[in-house]
Structure formats: C-alpha cells, structure tokens
C-alpha cells in the first residue's frame, strides 16, 4: 500500500488493515518465535533510491531506522520499536562481471540465488550454509561460509559496498573512499551505522566433484570421536570442511538416543582428488562408529537441501555460540551440550576453524576467532516449550563461556548474553566510527536489553567480568 505522505511503498503501524502490517512486520522473519516489538512503519523498498528516501523519511519523522535483508537474524534484530523498518526483500540486484570474477549484489540476495546464478558460469561464492540467509546480515557479521576453516571469512571477499548513511546520503565505500565504513562493514554486524544497498564481491571457481564422508558414533564414544577429529582437522586437506554435530540419532544409524556425527565435505574438480582428500578420514576415523557413509557424491544444491531440512521453516529457535579457547579441554567443555539437547530437532556443532584461525586477519572490524567454533541451534515447535528450551541454552552456555575467547555475532542475542565480539582495539575503533557516522543513533544498532545501547554500542566484555 502507498501512503499519502510519501510515494514510498510503506505500511504504517496505524494502518487499519492489521494483517498487512503484521505481514510486513514479521512475515519475512525466519524465527517463528516472533518478537513483541512494533516498528512505526515498514518500507518495502524495491530500489536503492527508495532506501535513500526511507532514511530521509525517518529523519523527518525523528525516528530510528532498522534494516532487514534476508530476515534470518535469530533474534529478529530488524524488528524494533517505533523505528522505520527498511525491508530490502523486494530490492533485487545481481550484476556479474565474469571477466573480473566479481559480482554486485543487493543485500537480500540469498546464498541459493547467488550460487544459482554463479553455478551457470562455473563460479561460486562461499556464502552461508543455510540457502535462504541474506548476504546482508551474513557479510556484516563476517560470514562463516562454506569451508571457512580454509577459504577464510566470507567478508574477506567484499571489495566494496554502497551504503546510505545516517543523513540519507548514498556513499561508495572501499579501501580508498569512506574507508572507515568499509572497515566497519566487515564485522560490525547489526551495529553498522548505515544501510548497505550493494555488496561488491569476489567469487571463486566452482567445484564439480563434491564428496561427503559421514561417521555416526553413539554418544558413549563421544570422547574418542572428538579427540580424533579435533586433532585431525588443522592439517586436513585444504578444500575440506569439517564439522561435528551432536543430535538425537537418525533411525538408520541404529543408535538409540544421542549421537555424534563427524562430517567431512570436500570440494574438488576431480573425483580421484576428492577421494584422496577424504582418505585420511575414511581410514583414520576411530573404531566405535555405528554407521559410516564414505565418499558420498554431493553438490552445493544437495547441501542446501540438507541445511534447510535441519533448520526447518515455521519453527521456534534459540541460537548461542562461543569460540572455545585453543588450550581448553574442548570435548569436556562441550560434552553437556552434545549429550542433553532439549528437543529431538535441536542440535549443536563443533566447527573446525584451524588453520585459518591461526593466520592474521586483514584489517577490518572482524577480529575474534579461535580454532574451535561451538554453537547451539535449539529448534522446537510449541510456545509451551519456550522457557524450557531457552533455559537449556542459557544454562549450557553459562558453563561453556568461561572457556571462551568470545563469540560470533551471527549466532548471538545481546538481550540474552553479553560477551566479547572483537579484539579490544577493533571494538574501540568500531564504536568511534559508529559515533562519527551516526551521532544521533538514527540506525538502530545493537539490540540489547530494553534496546538501550544506541550510539554507545556494546561493551565488548564477558558478562561475568562486569
Ligand atoms: C537457518 C540459519 C542458518 C545460518 N547459517 C549461517 C552460516 O552458515 N554462517 C553464518 O555465518 N551465519 C549463519 N546464520 C546466521 C546469519 O548469518 C545471521 O542471522 C544473519 O544476520 C542473517 O542475515 P540476514 O540478512 O538474513 O538477516 P536480517 O535479519 O535481515 O539482518 C540481520 C541484521 O543485520 C543488519 N543488516 C542486515 N542487512 C543490512 C543492510 N543492508 N544494511 C545495514 N544493516 C543490515 C541489521 O541490523 C539486521 O537487523 C544462519 C542463520 C539461520 C537462521
């Protein structure tokens, strides 16, 4: 619907057609645990100039701006009280420069759409694992994409952005122009002080031979399986992603109760090369598994299907995470989480980050990582389970967090847990940049308790130290 005051496609909270407002407010929010927060209006922008106009409208209305790209923030950061929410879902832009192996995309572009186009040209972008995550939120946080442990953070492939600043001006930002904003765009997460309208990305050649080896262990073998995979990962083949998953065992494994799944996914251009990459896992995995599936042919499209199945739509979610210290007894720190998930659909992961976690990062806001990424993805169906599932997440994390260097913005909720997201110097510079580019707190920023952080931003400290 088009309002009287502006030509923008806008739905006001005061709209008499309540369903229209509710659709615009949360219809594109992935987590079915809907927030009780109510924007003043939602602008469903279809062009870059409408994004500019929407920010200027917020300035005239003297209210804040919130942004939605793919709608996959677990904590629904886009939905903020009394803000003008700029929903970028209908603004779609994909411009491929094959010669330069580069692509310009609008922020609501999903991994599936991006790779759908790239794959027709033999190219790939190592974006998020879930097919429908938007590049907007994902890249701002750093982006733990496919084979992040070897290929690095997805935001390292961002060469420039276009963004509307808090005064409603469209800026091009790269290492030469507006370089502060470009620095912040790679790791500020939802505290970025502007609205990004375009990402300029480097892409990589696609892989024709994707193979998967999977080893299912009963939980009684947890320690043996984890000790081995943690030791094997840092020096494993460089095109292979490695993850350990704790969940209720699928029936075909014959395991009753929880299991540990060790999952090796290799991306190559030759079948023999892919098989030899997986050989050390196929022959070196410890005994005690209940089921092994080795060298399974796969593809990015298959992997997206698997991810979408593990993270079904229409469900309630609570995610949490920690970078466990390199010198911790990592299996011991994670054991409770791996063995006590509160719902059959819930799962947790240990995601190998070494060797990339050991190399210096480029100069950008993103600055915290360790060899061991640990995350809880608690999935359930009914509101009546909210308290039980959320308490399980908090109680489990309370024991883990003291063994951590910090956390990843992407799987965090600042209303629930306050911790460290950046190196100290990076956090200071980031908060300075936010103050410089958005002194009035026009862009909503980090959603903490009571949405109070505003221009101040986050403290970047473990909560038990405060
Ligand atoms: C099922 C699922 C799987 C996931 N898998 C991965 C994964 O493999 N790797 C990983 O790293 N993360 C993963 N995530 C986390 C995901 O990257 C974050 O939740 C991310 O915020 C989602 O981006 P979005 O654009 O879809 O979200 P949104 O909810 O649209 O955006 C989140 C916030 O980011 C900011 N933002 C977004 N776009 C812009 C913009 N254009 N300009 C300024 N600010 C903006 C806003 O503050 C916004 O509220 C997953 C999440 C889900 C739900």
TrEMBL record:
Q: Which cofactor does it need?
A: FAD
FAD-binding PCMH-type domain boundaries: 35-206
- Give a single Pfam family match: FAD_binding_4
| Keyword list, A-Z | FAD, Flavoprotein, Oxidoreductase
Q: Which GO terms describe its molecular function?
A: FAD binding; oxidoreductase activity
Which superkingdom? Eukaryota
The cross-references to SUPFAM superfamilies, in alphabetical order and at most eight, read:
FAD-binding/transporter-associated domain-like
- Give the family this protein belongs to, as stated in its UniProt record: Belongs to the oxygen-dependent FAD-linked oxidoreductase family.
In terms of PANTHER family, this protein maps to:
BINDING OXIDOREDUCTASE, PUTATIVE (AFU_ORTHOLOGUE AFUA_1G17690)-RELATED, FAD-BINDING PCMH-TYPE DOMAIN-CONTAINING PROTEIN
The name on file for this protein is FAD binding domain protein
User: Which organism does this record belong to?
Assistant: Lophium mytilinum
């Amino acid at each position: 619907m088009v309002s009287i005051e502006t030509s923008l496609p806008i739905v006001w909270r005061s709209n008499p057609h309540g369903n229209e407002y509710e659709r615009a407010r949360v219809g594109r929010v992935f987590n079915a645990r809907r927030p009780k927060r109510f924007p003043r209006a939602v602008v469903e922008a279809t062009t870059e100039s409408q994004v500019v106009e929407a920010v200027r409208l917020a300035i005239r209305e003297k209210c804040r701006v919130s942004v939605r790209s793919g709608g996959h923030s677990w904590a629904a950061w886009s939905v903020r009280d009394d803000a003008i929410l700029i929903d970028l879902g209908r603004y779609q832009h994909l411009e491929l420069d094959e010669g330069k192996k580069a692509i310009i995309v609008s922020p609501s572009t999903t991994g599936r759409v991006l790779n759908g186009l790239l794959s027709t040209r033999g190219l790939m972008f190592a974006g998020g694992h879930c097919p429908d995550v938007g590049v907007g939120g994902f890249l701002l946080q750093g982006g733990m994409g496919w084979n992040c442990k070897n290929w690095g953070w997805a935001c390292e492939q961002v060469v420039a952005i276009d963004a509307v600043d808090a005064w409603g001006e469209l800026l091009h930002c790269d290492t030469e122009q507006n370089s502060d904003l470009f620095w912040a765009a790679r790791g500020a997460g939802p505290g970025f002080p502007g609205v990004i309208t375009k990402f300029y990305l480097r892409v990589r050649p696609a892989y024709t031979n994707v193979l998967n080896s999977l080893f299912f262990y009963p939980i009684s073998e947890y320690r043996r399986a984890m000790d081995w995979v943690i030791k094997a990962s840092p020096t494993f083949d460089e095109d292979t992603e490695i993850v350990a998953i704790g969940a209720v065992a699928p029936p075909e494994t014959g395991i009753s109760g929880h299991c540990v799944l060790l999952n090796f996914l290799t991306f190559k251009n030759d079948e023999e090369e892919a098989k030899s990459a997986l050989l050390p896992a196929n022959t070196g995995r410890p005994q005690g598994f209940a089921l092994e599936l080795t060298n399974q042919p796969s593809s990015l499209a298959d992997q997206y299907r698997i991810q979408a199945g593990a993270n079904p739509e229409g469900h309630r979610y609570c995610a949490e995470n920690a970078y466990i210290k390199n010198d911790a007894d990592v299996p011991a720190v994670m054991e409770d989480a791996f063995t006590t998930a509160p719902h059959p659909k819930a799962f947790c992961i240990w995601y190998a980050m070494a060797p990339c976690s050991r190399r210096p990062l480029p100069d950008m806001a993103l600055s915290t990582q360790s060899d061991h990424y640990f995350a809880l993805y608690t999935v359930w169906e009914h509101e009546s389970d909210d308290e039980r599932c959320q308490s399980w997440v908090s109680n489990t994390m309370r024991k883990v967090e003291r063994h951590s260097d910090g956390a990843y913005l992407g799987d965090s909720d600042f209303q629930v847990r306050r911790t460290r997201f950046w190196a100290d110097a990076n956090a200071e510079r980031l908060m300075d940049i936010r103050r410089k580019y958005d002194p009035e707190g026009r862009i909503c920023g980090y959603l903490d308790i009571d949405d109070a952080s505003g221009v101040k931003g986050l403290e970047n400290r473990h909560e038990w130290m405060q």
